[in-house]
Write a structure and sequence with these properties.
Chain A has about 675 residues and is an alpha+beta fold. Chain A has 27 helices and 21 strands. In chain A, the strands form 7 sheets. In chain A, strands 2, 7, 8, 9, 10 and 11 form a 6-stranded antiparallel sheet that branches. Chain B is elongated, with a radius of gyration of 20 Å. The chains are: A alpha+beta (about 675), B mainly alpha (about 160).
């Protein structure tokens, strides 16, 4: 608007000049002509200015609308959209544009879809789907999802053959970093449902949704009815409104300010900010002022708690209170939290006390978000961990102490040096001079990396270990249900918890707990891998493939354990065991293809056959080369005549596996 | 003995002398400022050539724009000085102090506009130029007035 006013003013000035100078210059133009010209200079630009202002106002309300099947994107009196930020904050816009936040939700186009829609058939639970491209559109042919849903709701298993099929166009994508998921529309309800396979970008592999999470094995097909309009819209878009019609239950009016996580997700609605800062005088007054701009939220210019909540809005497990029930949020109002506004006005952050169990058929399934000590089991919920840390409670750490959202590597969005000890040393300066004095490890050792001990990979998401964001000290707790894996034994995979406990007591005066005979005689990683629950096993086996742990604990002893868990009931365990095996051994491309095909749904028996072959090869090689496996790793060092490894002991521990069905909520 | 032409001849001579002085002044200013702003152009090319961050970094877009505008306006206004000198020389313009006023306005505008842009780019407020930019509208008004007055007087002639 100010630009228009400026133009109007300049036109007026020109009119004034003609009016004054014209008649003064005798004979040039008459007074009447000068007056007419002057009036024209005022009137014509005035009309143009008014009409352009109206057009701008209309554009602000109905900025862009994409394909009819995708939630409409429109700006309003709150949200202005990232394009409005670009003209003044070009560098920040560019760095955001390169981030995975932007591409969290996208309209399905040839640019955004990364998976090969090449006509291939995908099979799981005896049901098949094909993915194909038709021109610039992406289509799937699959079992009618509502047909599956009707069976599953009755507690029955739908038949694999002779079932109604449907063809759906993929209209939207989620993710672009590790995985990409695809959405189609249910015509009757206008809901966006999830295509049951998602694409692993790193592995170049389609994986069924039942195999992507830590969840109990099921012979039922996934319902695929995760509804984007209800759930994902809250954090995977800006200003999302589910817009469900309470009478028809149709999502007729789902709309967002912007798909993906853009500027206003972290800085709050910007319409007012833009409106006020179009005035150059206000802008320069703000430049010269020392007080923060009150028309926009800047997480860098506020206290650590408020700043971190800007991220915690989405990176947390949160329970709404009754006045703002889940249903109201999921069907009507959407996520109303705005950065800078105290979140606990509307509910509370979940804790370990919120762990629940639900029934599916005859089995009770534990819904797990936290370890017994309160740390998060799943990745993506880092805020719950952060606020429980001493660095947050007693210090002033915030997400932005280590993460830099603008101008750095989009992968993890860490600031300069924040992958190193510099992250911790920026506050713990007293340790800078003599790190080994504190760590009791060589300075160049991975044991001297602060994060390996205080932020171990004890959370799990996206089929891999994720660093815990509850910054704490390594603690040995006797093996048991929901007990978190201790940081030391996530590197020292070959050592027992008793060994760790001894060192913690000697170095730091930590009290040693009473440990079971297994904790004293069997390597911790082996106990977690063979006796643990689905989550403990998934995390343990991921560390078998973690290069830092391999360097510390060696790899020559791993094969019997990895091949043993290739038949684990949890897909996440098998997936990581296979990744570790591939990293250790050179396996023929034909075998890689055969096992990968059978990894989630054993159709041909190739997985078991190749695992057995790998174990036999390893045993032959170990005997021939005189490999000695220590006792904590179930070796027979004192009785090599029985082979280097005690298979019966492994089977005995496997029988004690915690088969309690559990889901880690990501 | 011939009597001198009363009043007219000395005035015309004085005016011609003053006009010649003005012409010379604007030719000098024009050519020298053309030299200066050409050097500024080369400096900007060097910044481009060596990919200097303080000029080419994506965060320095405002500086890049301001300094480009300083170079462009400085160079063009140098040519305007020369054009003004040529106008004075080639046309027997009407009497009056207007040419002195225009000359002053042109010199002021020719300094304030490019210097304002230069200073505006020297220290920036994110996407806004620094306070030096305040010189620009003053210089712009001087230039607009100078152009208008010249146009009017050329038309009257």
């Amino acid at each position: 608007m100010w630009a228009e006013c400026l133009l109007y003013g300049l036109a007026g000035l020109a009119g004034l000049l003609v009016l004054v100078v014209g008649p003064m210059s005798a004979g040039w133009i008459s007074s009447r002509t000068a007056l007419t010209l002057a009036i024209s200079f005022f009137v014509v630009p005035g009309i143009l200015t008014l009409s352009s202002m109206q057009a701008i106002d209309r554009a602000a309300h109905y900025a862009t609308t994409t394909a009819a099947d995708v939630p409409s994107q429109r700006t309003d009196q709150l949200f202005a959209g990232s394009n409005s930020c670009r003209s003044c904050h070009a560098a920040e816009y560019d760095s955001w544009h390169a981030s995975f936040h932007r591409t969290m939700t996208q309209v399905a186009t040839t640019e955004s879809v990364v998976a090969p829609f090449d006509g291939r058939a995908l099979t799981r639970h005896g049901q098949q789907a094909t993915v194909e491209r038709r021109g610039d559109e992406f289509w799937v042919d699959m079992v009618e999802p509502e047909f599956n849903l009707s069976y599953v709701r009755q507690g029955q298993i739908p038949p694999g053959d002779d079932v109604p099929r449907t063809q759906r166009r993929i209209v939207m994508t989620t993710g672009s970093h590790s995985f990409q998921a695809y959405w189609y529309v249910i015509d009757e309800t206008r809901e966006l449902w999830l295509f049951p396979w998602r694409y692993s970008i790193a592995e170049n592999l389609w994986i069924h949704v039942d195999d992507v999470f830590v969840q109990p094995p099921t012979d039922r097909p996934a319902l695929g009815h995760n509804v984007w309009n209800q759930t994902c819209i809250q954090c995977h878009s800006v200003g999302g409104q589910p817009g469900s019609n309470s009478l028809t239950h149709r999502f007729d009016n789902t709309h967002v300010a912007e798909l993906g996580i853009s500027c206003e997700a972290c800085h709050g609605p910007a319409h007012k900010h833009i409106q006020q800062h179009q005035n150059p005088f206000r802008r320069y007054a703000q430049h010269l002022s020392e007080t923060p701009d009150r028309t926009i939220f800047n997480p860098l210019l506020t206290d650590h708690a408020t700043s971190s909540q800007a991220c915690g809005i989405c990176h947390s497990n949160f329970a709404y209170d009754e006045d703002h029930s889940q249903n109201k949020v999921r069907f009507e109002i959407g996520n109303e939290f705005r950065p800078g506004i105290e979140m606990t006005n509307r509910g509370r952050f979940m804790t370990v006390a919120d762990e629940t169990v639900y029934k599916e058929g005859n089995q009770e399934i534990s819904v797990s978000r936290f370890w017994a000590d309160g740390a998060c089991r799943s990745g993506g919920r880092e805020y719950n961990g952060l606020i429980e840390s001493a660095c947050f409670k007693k210090g002033e750490i915030s997400c932005l102490s280590c993460h830099k959202l603008h101008g750095n590597d989009p992968d993890d969005q860490l600031g300069d040096g924040m992958r190193t000890n510099q992250a911790c040393l920026q506050c713990h300066t007293d340790m800078q001079q003599d790190i080994p004095a504190h760590t009791h490890h060589d300075e160049s050792s991975t044991g001297s990396q602060c994060m390996n001990c205080h932020m171990p990979h004890s959370s799990f998401a996206l089929l891999r270990g994720i660093r815990s964001h509850r910054i704490d000290n390594p603690t040995v707790v006797p093996f048991g249900q929901n007990v978190r894996l201790n940081a030391c034994n996530l590197c020292h995979l070959d050592k027992t918890q008793a060994w760790t406990s001894g060192f913690l007591a000697e170095w730091y005066g930590t009290q040693s707990p009473t440990l079971s005979p297994d904790d004293q005689s069997v390597a911790a990683s082996v106990l977690w891998l063979l006796k643990g629950d689905g989550g403990q096993r998934s995390l343990s086996v991921w560390h078998f493939g973690w290069p830092e742990a391999q360097a510390v604990a060696g790899t020559s002893w791993m094969m019997p354990f990895l091949t043993a868990v290739m038949s684990d009931p949890y897909s996440s365990v098998r997936y990581n065991a296979w990744s570790a095996i591939r990293a250790l051994n050179s396996i023929s491309p034909a075998d890689v293809e055969a096992v990968t095909k059978d990894l989630f749904d054993d159709l041909t028996g190739d997985r078991a056959r190749i695992s057995n072959t790998l174990l036999l090869d390893w045993t032959r090689h170990a005997i021939a080369s005189g490999v000695v496996i220590p006792e904590p790793l179930l070796g027979n060092p004192n009785n090599l005549a029985n082979g280097p490894f005690s298979e019966p002991r492994l089977r005995e521990l496997l029988k004690q596996r915690d088969d309690r069905p559990m889901v880690i909520v990501e | 003995m011939t009597s001198p032409v009363p009043n007219a001849s000395p005035t015309t001579a004085d005016r011609r002398t003053a006009q010649e002085l003005l012409t010379r002044r604007h030719l000098i200013i024009g050519w020298w400022s053309l030299a200066v702003f050409s050097i500024l152009g080369i400096a900007l090319e060097v910044l481009h050539g060596f990919k200097i961050d303080l000029y080419l970094n994506v965060t320095q877009e405002t500086r890049r724009l301001m300094w480009t505008l300083a170079h462009a306006h400085g160079t063009l206004l140098s040519l305007v000085h020369i054009a003004f000198a040529v106008t004075l020389k080639s046309m027997d313009l009407p009497r009056g102090g207007w040419s002195k006023i225009v000359s002053t306005l042109l010199i002021l505008g020719g300094i304030l506009l490019p210097v304002g842009f230069l200073l505006g780019g020297w220290m920036t407020f994110h996407s806004d130029p620094g306070l030096g930019i305040l010189l620009v509208p003053i210089g712009a008004i001087c230039i607009v007035l100078a152009f208008t007055m010249t146009a009017v007087n050329v038309s009257r002639k």
